[in-house]
Amino acid sequence: MSEIFLRTKLLIGEEKFKILQKSKVLVFGVGGVGSVVAESLVRTGIKYLDICDGDNISITNLNRQIMTDFNNIGSQKTHVLKNKLLNINPDLIINTFDYFFDEMTCESFEFENYDFVIDCIDNIKSKIMIILKSQKNNVKIISCMGTGNKLNPMDLEFCDIYKTSVCPLARIMRRELKKNNVKSLDVVYSREKPRYVPNDRINSSAMFVPATAGLIISSEVIKKLVNLE
Questions:
Q1: I want to staple 16 with a disulfide (CB 3.0 to 4.6 A). Which of 12, 100, 123, 153 is the partner?
Q2: How many Cβ atoms from other residues are within 10 Å of residue 52's Cβ?
């Protein structure tokens, strides 16, 4: 199975690849962003991966979530993604948490056991809890801001939360993180002004924006895990 990662080893070297193989990553939310994060990490060499999401696949997910198709509508997202990832690397060690992260479920996660946590969820209160628990346990974390109602992936940027602008979710997060005395946080956000959506109950989306955000996040995770810039 080592041939799967031949090209990764050529890119970063054998010793740094061994670090990836020992690293344990937790992804919260496996929608348009998180599903791409999970798959790209596995294809690059992450061997220990946990994924958390309480949603089932709906027909409106087919436009952007990489594990979805007509055959798995109604299925649990984490189960479908797990099967897809195991078909990429059968040696993958993957655990699924088939519920949402909140005050009721937060104690299910031992943050100190992870090398990296990735926040790809939308709920602000839960995002704050994930960030605080990660930083309390000195675990690296990247948080994704809003990718809905956006059309231009070239406007995505990786930076500190306090350097963000335009993004409505990032604005709220800056305020709430200040209240919690969070001094710094790595995020991916979009400088693009959100587009008008006639239906205010649902966000518009196109795959290339959340997918690009997911690829940027996974790139930063890999680089930080093996100390590459």
A1: 12
A2: 24
The whole-number pLDDT of residue 2 equals: 67
Q: What is the pTM of this model?
A: 0.97
Residue 60 included in any domain = yes
User: Higher confidence at residue 163 or residue 199?
Assistant: 163
Q: Which domain holds residue 54?
A: 2-144+204-225
* Whether the Cβ atoms of residue 39 and residue 85 lie closer than 8 Å to each other: yes
In a domain, 158, yes or no: no
Which tens digits make up the pLDDT trace of 112-146? Answer: 999 999 999 999 999 999 999 999 999 999 999 99
- Residue 18 covered by a domain: yes
Give pLDDT tens digits for 80-92: 999 999 999 999 9
Structural domain tally of the chain? Answer: 1
